[in-house]
């Protein structure tokens, strides 16, 4: 480990000129460690409190509250020649996307790399540093107020520790991935994480948010269309008001409204008023907007996709799902990592549904690529028409 780096005081960055000079220096490097601290307790969008960066010489704490121009930093992280090292990067990429409007062009997620190496599917940064470097990192400031100024010494020590060891861990993990022949698979997964982060907030996906309502499959076609419109409307309102979705209406509320209005056949505020299980204040605030939304034909939504709904599998498909899970466990054991890395239950449920409907090419995006190569022969055997046998591993 780079002991000299961990012993140095972090450098505080508060001005645009200072940040621009650092970005010019960092743009010549092939790798840079990054972490973020943010607050998201009562808002839709996370509020960035600090960005931590480490190169091989120093650790830097970038204070975003006083910097208005991030163009050089955006150019830096979107440079494909500079690999950005993060741990469990999904939330960090989401923050960068909403805060800066960009995500890194190249990332190395140390949590994902550790999963490939059998160190745990969702190992924490602290546990990974302890395993690889033998260093114990404090956790006391995990729920700290990162928007408060001035930051305490403990906050700055905690924030710095979150990037101090990333470059050395990256070197160890990258070499280990290469030794095991997993590096290309891992890189494909990191690319998928980047593409997912770019697309996550795209408005075109709001049309399918009804799929995340657990009981949506109970609804008739009219109810599903109402639910689709309600989910889209809630997304708009939550973003406009910068409030959590559940502060507008909970998922169960959206379902109850869609089901009630569909079955009653009456689109009116008086009909909504009979829904006693929904918070009265929410109904008073939003009833008129809800009715206007459901009656508004100016926004054209996509056709309801019933394959996205989380309806229960039949007994026969549940049996096939178990066989698919057994196949995944066996293949993962052969490869030496957690079965969740090869295929999670949610993904396998979607796959079983697709293949049962003869949608042979419709593999979930997370299972395509190398995972499909590993699993397709066994999955095909399990899903073959008329086959009702336990999977046999190679």
Your description of this structure?
- The chain has helices spanning 3-7, 16-26, 71-77, 90-100, 110-116, 125-133, 153-164, 166-180, 183-199, 221-241, 245-248, 251-264, 269-272, 280-295, 315-335, 339-342, 345-356, 370-383, and strands at 11-13, 31-39, 47-54, 59-62, 83-86, 107-109.
- The protein has a 6-stranded mixed beta sheet, sandwiched between helices.
- It has 3 domains: 3-199, Nucleotidyltransferase, domain 5 (2-Layer Sandwich); 203-307, DNA polymerase, domain 1 (Orthogonal Bundle), CATH 1.10.150.80; 312-383, Orthogonal Bundle (DNA polymerase, domain 1), CATH 1.10.150.
- It is globular and about 70 Å long.
- Residues 389-394 have low confidence and may be disordered.
- The chain has 18 helices and 6 strands.
- 52% of the residues lie in helices and 8% in strands.
- The chain is an alpha/beta fold and 394 residues long.
- Helix 5 (110-116) packs parallel to helix 8 (166-180) and helix 15 (315-335) runs antiparallel to helix 18.
Short account of what is shown:
The chain is of the alpha/beta class and 394 residues long. The protein has helices at 3-7, 16-26, 71-77, 90-100, 110-116, 125-133, 153-164, 166-180, 183-199, 221-241, 245-248, 251-264, 269-272, 280-295, 315-335, 339-342, 345-356, 370-383, and strands at 11-13, 31-39, 47-54, 59-62, 83-86, 107-109. It has a 6-stranded mixed beta sheet with strand order 1-4-3-2-5-6, sandwiched between helices.
């Amino acid at each position: 480990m780079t002991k000299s780096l961990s012993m140095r005081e972090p450098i505080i960055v508060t001005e645009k000129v200072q940040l621009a000079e650092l970005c010019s220096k960092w743009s010549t490097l092939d790798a840079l460690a990054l972490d973020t601290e943010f607050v998201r307790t009562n808002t839709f969008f996370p509020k960035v409190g600090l960005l931590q960066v480490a190169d091989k010489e120093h650790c830097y704490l970038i204070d975003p509250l006083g910097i208005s121009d991030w163009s050089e930093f955006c150019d830096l992280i979107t440079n494909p020649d500079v690999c950005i090292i993060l741990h469990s990067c999904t939330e960090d990429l989401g923050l960068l996307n909403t805060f800066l409007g960009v995500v890194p062009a190249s990332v190395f997620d140390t949590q994902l790399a550790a999963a490939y190496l059998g160190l745990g599917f969702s190992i924490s940064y602290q546990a990974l540093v302890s395993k690889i470097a033998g260093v114990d990192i404090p956790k006391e400031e995990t729920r700290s107020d990162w928007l408060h100024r001035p930051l305490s010494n403990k906050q700055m020590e905690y924030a710095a520790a979150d990037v101090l060891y990333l470059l050395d861990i990256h070197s160890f993990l990258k070499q280990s991935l290469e030794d095991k022949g997993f590096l290309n698979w891992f890189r494909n997964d990191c690319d998928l994480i980047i593409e997912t982060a770019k697309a996550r907030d795209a408005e075109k996906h709001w049309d399918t948010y009804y799929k995340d309502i657990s009981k949506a499959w109970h609804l008739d076609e009219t109810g599903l269309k109402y639910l689709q419109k309600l989910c889209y409307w809630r997304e708009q309102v939550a973003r406009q008001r910068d409030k959590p979705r559940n502060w507008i209406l909970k998922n169960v509320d959206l379902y109850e409204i869609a089901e009630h209005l569909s079955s009653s056949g009456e689109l009116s505020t008086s009909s909504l008023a009979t829904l006693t299980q929904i918070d009265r204040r929410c109904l008073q605030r939003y009833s008129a907007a809800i009715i206007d939304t459901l009656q508004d034909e100016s926004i054209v939504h996509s056709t309801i996709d019933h394959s996205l709904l989380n309806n229960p599998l039949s007994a026969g498909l549940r049996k096939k799902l178990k066989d698919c899970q057994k196949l995944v466990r066996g293949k993962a054991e052969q490869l030496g990592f957690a079965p969740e890395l090869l295929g999670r239950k949610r993904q396998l449920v979607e796959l079983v549904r697709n293949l049962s409907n003869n949608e042979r090419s419709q593999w979930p995006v997370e299972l395509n690529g190398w995972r499909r190569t590993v699993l397709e022969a066994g999955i095909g055997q399990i899903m073959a028409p008329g086959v009702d046998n336990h999977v046999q591993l190679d």
